[in-house]
Design goal:
Blueprint lengths: L15 H7 L5 E6 L5 H14 L7 E5 L2 H14 L2 H4 L3 E4 H11 L1 H4 L5 E2 L2 H14 L1 H5 L5 H14 L3 H9 L6 H27 L2 E2 L1 H14 L1 H8 L4 E4 L7 H7 L7 E6 L14 H4 L1 H4 L3 E6 L1 E2 L4 H12 L10 E2 L8 E5 L2 H18 L7 E5 L6 H9 L4 E4 L8 H14 L4 H9 L6 H11 L5 H12 L1 H16 L4 H19 L4 H5 L2 H9 L5 H9 L4 E3 L2 E5 L12 E5 L8 E6 L16 H15 L2 E10 H9 L4 H4 L12 E3 L27
Parallel strand pairs: 1-7, 1-8, 2-3, 2-6, 4-5, 6-7, 9-10, 11-18, 11-19, 12-16, 12-17, 13-16, 17-18
Antiparallel strand pairs: 13-15, 14-15
């Protein structure tokens, strides 16, 4: 055999357990690969091994969850072998694979003349259904997109409609009031979903979930279909197996008798149950897959042992048995550091100063730093401080702060003052107000287009629109124009005039999520000398793609700066990420685990796995922050390890170093808070 490893891995040889997994000669295998143990190296090595052993590449199907991952694995296999050997090797996502099968065998699956529709098309079809079924739709107060979420969740998890509504609309709540509401709306939701399915049939459409269902249902019921595909697929190599859901398992199960399974995954990193992923596909592998074996990879090539000791402890505390304890191939390093903070702004300033110190005094790059949070919502203060301190960053997962709808509503008002010809800004600003739809706004725009500059617009806007609407809109426009040299003041005055309408428009999560964004927006505004500067540098930065994944620029002013930046990511978007220095934010009570999940052992354990994924991204230094207020609340109440369920409640002091904030200078300089914003931190923003 010429190679047991890809050339792209700098000729690192396989360790004993990896080699055993690559050369496995049984029927079905699960490679239980802990974080940083080289799972991709194994799946690449396995494909290369099969081909060199004489298996035709076209008989090997590699399945992943992203096109990027599929392409990467195939390219690394091709780098291992000659071009001719691996030319016909196929790697794809579950959905694209099913689409390939339907296209290749149109008569077998009966979907030859159907058109695949994307999520935008699905939403259009659902909106048509809601328009047709007006009586049913008005009685449920659920948006068309939520109906699609219910529909997709139920199909992917194989759950009934009641459970799907509970999870996607009521966040899993199970009380008498919730049950009564579900009982009332369930028949109407069922009617709308059935009408949606009928509408798809009339248009001869199939959506993404249909792709899997069409193939899965035919294979389950048709022995001839299984016989045909038994000649096409001999080996299924499945990456990230812990992320498969019940529908994907339904698709795979018929192949157990006609192909060899080689599954790579880690049940301790199964964190996508909200998308239907079922960790039990890994955890119960040998029960579900006859003639199967499990090999465990536990030698970690990413992190120092001190980081792994904390990660191992966290998983060992679980009532579930994850059957692994990671050992570092790199040996010893420094202990992870635990920092208690009094506010998000103290936390943000600590992280920012630590990164700047590493950059200026320790010769580290910004890209050596990774910041992880459970949600993008929690990183808003951090992003504000980074912008203030001119730390370049990008965000992974979710939409960046400036892309939030309620923020864009306010910014639209500033945009039209800055540029009276900004039709996109005008359309958003005008339709924001009650009673003005797109048609009415279009008529107003034709009048506004006659104004040549902001002063002329300010003078005539009230009359151009007319009525109370004209008074409100002109008032906002004029106050922004008056404060155009003081962006913070302009934002404060604008928000004061738009607040009531904003609160009504976003009433479902206004108090909980959106309202607190506006002090942060004002803080950002104080960094800019003019409205135009804020818009050009801070607002109109389009989403970009890096490595095939959506990444939203945070603070870069031009593309040349994007080469070195801090990454801010949600934990759910952190798979595949790693960094020399990693900060895991807000590992506090009621966050790990979430207060929403305390009544569900399954959800508590998923939160544990989320934290495990976060901790294992760090290579050399790990910082964990938590809120002192929430810690004190637990300590001063009846909260115990059993009642609060806080994951770090019993963390041994020998595993971590309690860190006293070395940047205490901020405490004497009035750290910026939502209610007291002070940017006099010695930086020149001119």
């Amino acid at each position: 055999m010429k190679y047991l490893y890809p050339k792209k891995l700098n000729t690192q040889i396989l360790n004993e357990k990896q080699k055993k997994a690559v050369e496995f000669d049984g029927k079905h295998l699960l490679v239980l690969a802990g974080a940083g143990t080289g799972k991709t190296r194994c799946i690449v090595g396995r494909a290369a091994h099969l081909i060199e052993e004489g298996v035709a590449p076209e008989k090997i199907q590699i399945l992943t969850f992203t096109k990027r991952a599929a392409s990467e694995i195939v390219e690394r296999v091709k780098a291992t072998l000659t071009d001719n050997q691996a030319r016909s090797l196929n790697g794809s996502t579950f959905h694209s694979w099913c689409n390939q099968l339907i296209v290749r065998f149109p008569n077998l699956f009966g979907a030859a003349s159907y058109t695949v529709i994307d999520p935008d098309d699905q939403l259009s079809v659902m909106k048509m259904v809601c328009g047709d079924q007006t009586i049913e739709y008005k009685g449920i107060r659920i948006k068309p997109q939520q109906l699609l979420d219910i529909y997709s969740y139920g199909r992917n998890t194989r759950q009934n409609l009641t459970t799907s509504i509970r999870e996607k609309v009521y966040k899993g709540k199970n009380d008498d009031d919730t049950n009564d509401e579900i009982d009332i709306i369930r028949p109407r939701v069922a009617s709308l979903l059935q009408a949606y399915q009928t509408k798809k049939g009339e248009g001869r459409y199939i959506d993404y979930d249909d792709l899997l269902l069409v193939v899965a249902n035919r294979l389950k019921s048709d022995e001839e279909a299984r016989e045909i595909l038994s000649h096409e697929v001999k080996h299924l190599l499945i990456d990230e197996f812990q992320d498969t859901n019940p529908l994907q398992w339904q698709l795979l199960e018929p192949f157990l008798d006609i192909a060899n399974f080689y599954c790579v995954g880690d049940d301790a990193q199964s964190i996508y149950s909200f998308r239907g992923a079922d960790y039990r596909n890994v955890h119960l592998f040998q029960e579900r897959v006859p003639d199967s074996e499990i090999l465990i990879l536990d030698k970690n090539y990413r992190s120092t042992q001190e980081i792994l000791d904390v990660s191992n402890w966290l998983i060992a505390e679980s009532p579930l048995d994850y059957k692994k304890k990671l050992e570092s191939s790199r040996g010893s390093g420094v202990k992870p550091k635990l920092l208690n903070v009094a506010s998000q702004y103290e936390e943000a300033n600590f992280i920012a100063e630590n990164i700047l110190e590493n950059f200026t005094e320790r010769n580290k790059l910004f890209s050596d730093h990774l910041i992880l949070s459970k949600s993008t919502y929690y990183t808003k203060a951090l992003q504000a401080v980074f912008i203030q301190k001119k730390i370049p960053y990008v965000t992974y997962g979710g939409r960046k702060f400036m892309e939030a709808a309620h923020i864009k509503d306010v910014i639209a008002a500033l945009r039209v003052v800055n540029n009276v010809f900004d039709q996109i800004g005008w359309m958003r600003f005008l339709t924001f107000w009650d009673g003005i739809g797109e048609i009415k706004a279009g008529k107003f725009l034709s009048k506004i287009a006659e104004f040549q500059d902001p002063l002329e617009c300010a003078k005539n806007l009230k009359d151009a629109i007319g009525g109370q609407e004209g008074e409100k809109i002109a008032d906002v426009y004029n106050v922004i124009l008056e404060n155009s040299g003081n962006v913070k003041q302009a934002l404060q005055e604008t928000y004061a005039r738009m607040e009531m309408t904003l609160a009504f428009k976003y009433r479902k999560d206004w108090e909980e999520k959106r309202k607190s964004d506006f002090p942060v927006l004002e803080m950002l505004g104080d960094n800019y000398a003019s409205i135009g500067q804020m818009i050009s540098e801070g607002i109109l930065q389009n989403a970009k793609e890096m490595n095939g994944e959506p990444v939203l620029e945070g603070s870069q002013i031009n593309d040349s700066e994007i080469k070195d930046h801090v990454v801010i990511s949600t934990v759910h978007s952190a798979k595949g990420l790693e960094a020399d220095v990693c900060y895991v934010m807000n590992v506090s009570p009621k966050v790990y685990p979430s207060a929403w999940n305390l009544d569900s052992e399954e959800k508590i354990e998923e939160d544990r796995r989320v934290l495990y994924v976060a901790l294992t991204r760090a290579k050399n230094e790990l910082f964990i922050t938590r809120d002192t207020n929430s810690i004190n609340t637990v300590n001063n109440s009846q909260g115990t390890a059993s009642s609060s369920k806080y994951f770090l409640e019993e963390l041994p002091s020998t595993l971590i170093e309690q860190l006293i904030n070395p940047y205490n200078v901020f405490k004497s300089r009035d750290i910026a808070t939502p209610n007291q914003i002070d940017l006099s931190l010695g930086m020149d923003f001119s």
